[in-house]
Amino acid sequence: MSDEVNGAGFIGDCIRYMVISGVLALVAVIYNAFAGKESYGFWGSIAILAFYTIIPAIGAAIGNLLRKIAMPMFIVTNGGMGGLLKAKAFWAFGPQIIGWICGAAVAIDLLNKWFGFHLR
Description:
Keywords: Membrane, Transmembrane, Transmembrane helix. The chain crosses the membrane at residues 14-34, 40-62, 97-115. The protein has helices at 2-5, 10-35, 41-70, 80-115. The chain is mostly helical. It is elongated.
């Protein structure tokens, strides 16, 4: 309930991840414009920026939603403090990163199929 009051629900997560994805997409487009071997043109760069901003952000928000559902209340490890830190780091960042990577893969596939780009 407190997440919804503070605006940190699914829509708030989407907006936060969209800003992060947008910055990463802008860096990728600028890098490709100046150092890339292929030129996608203005509208191609806009399409890449839009797809790399929206789709990975939705994937990261879905990953965060799954994290909230599946995260355990307490963590028991046999690796001592190192195992505990690894488990805590995974549950803090892992599902969002996995969702972002899956969203980026979907965005690359859509750009390759719809626009004929050869992104990797």
